[in-house]
Design goal:
With 304 residues, the protein is of the alpha+beta class. The strands form 5 sheets. Strands 9-10-11-15-14-13-12 form a 7-stranded antiparallel beta sheet, sandwiched between helices. A 3-stranded antiparallel beta sheet has the order 7-8-16. The chain starts with a helix and ends in a 5-residue tail after the last strand.
Length: 304
């Protein structure tokens, strides 16, 4: 071997010996800690206490159990901690068929949460649902906007004994009525009708009582049983059974909070209809006026 080659070989051997000696020398650690090897090629050793060396697994690497934010896993799986390292601290595993795991519930935003149950005194009237408090729905003729909201209870008046008067058509009909109602008399028409109405200028359906006499000679006449069937089958009214008015038993149909109809026969081919109609907010307030009219009713030769 030539002299230059020998010098190079000796120099390489010296370098290897120095590196081996440095690897064998312990690094300096603070008091109470000692050196352990790691898998990090850039930091092959680190200083730990005896307690840290004894802790193993997921907790020793990433901290306390659980996740700061709920991991997102597919439905039917749930997250478990990863112990082998990696970029994701958890993995999704499938739950057993009989397991009950709250984590299986799909993640939802706040606006997807179920609505809170209504309080016991929540508004039950369907004619006010969807309207601001203090307003109710009224029907319109616009198919694109079948309802709109109007002020509630603005039309209601207090009814007392002084509110009533007597209306008489001699030899035909007589009854008590609340003076807030304005009467339109069409009793001499082909279909005799009295139309009582409270009109305070508010938008929407008014409070009305309609009294009509039907006889078989009228071109539009239909029997009382047919009229009742029409209410139930076509208008969605309920059969309210019978009601005694004077000495005659009448038939009742009604739509809750909207309409009440009474059919009163006076002969085989003749009867009267009495129809009360009001908005939901004032229906109960004026129903006593309708009852008072029926209880005070006199027909034919006894009308006075």
């Amino acid at each position: 071997m030539s002299a230059p080659a020998l010098r190079i070989a000796l120099f390489a051997s010296l370098i290897c010996a120095i590196q081996a000696r440095a690897a064998d020398e312990p690094i300096d650690c603070p008091k109470g800690q000692h050196r352990i090897s790691t898998d990090n090629p850039y930091e092959p050793f680190r200083c730990v206490t005896a307690e840290q060396e004894n802790k193993k697994g997921f907790d020793a690497v990433v901290g306390p159990k659980g996740f700061k934010e709920r991991p997102r896993c597919p439905r039917g799986t749930h997250p478990v901690a990863q112990t082998g390292g990696g970029l994701q601290p958890y993995r999704c595993v499938r739950a057993s068929a009989d397991a009950t795991d709250p984590e299986l519930a799909p993640l939802r935003a706040d606006d997807d949460a179920e609505a809170a149950p209504e309080s016991p005194d929540a508004e039950e009237d369907p004619m006010t649902k969807g309207c601001p408090r203090g307003k109710r729905k009224v029907r319109t003729n616009d198919p694109l906007e079948p309802y709109h909201c109007v002020a509630q209870s603005s039309r209601v008046h207090v009814l007392d004994e002084g509110s009533y008067g007597r209306y008489v058509i001699p030899g035909q009909i007589a009854f008590d009525y609340a003076s807030q109602f304005k009467i339109q008399d069409a009793w001499k028409e082909d279909v005799p009708t009295l139309y009582l109405k409270i009109d305070d200028g508010a938008a929407g359906k008014p409070v009305t009582i309609t009294i009509t006499r039907y006889v078989s000679s009228q071109s539009t006449y239909q029997e009382m049983s047919e009229a009742i069937s029409h209410d139930v089958e076509w208008a969605g009214a309920r059969d309210g059974g019978s009601q005694v008015i004077g000495r005659t038993r009448g038939r009742v149909t009604y739509i809750p909070g909207d309409t009440r109809s009474v059919y009163l026969p006076v002969a085989k081919d003749s009867y009267y209809s009495f129809v009360y109609s009001a908005p939901a907010d004032s229906y109960e307030a004026y129903l006593p006026a309708f009852s008072r009219l029926l209880n005070s009713l006199k027909l034919a030769g006894n009308a006075r």
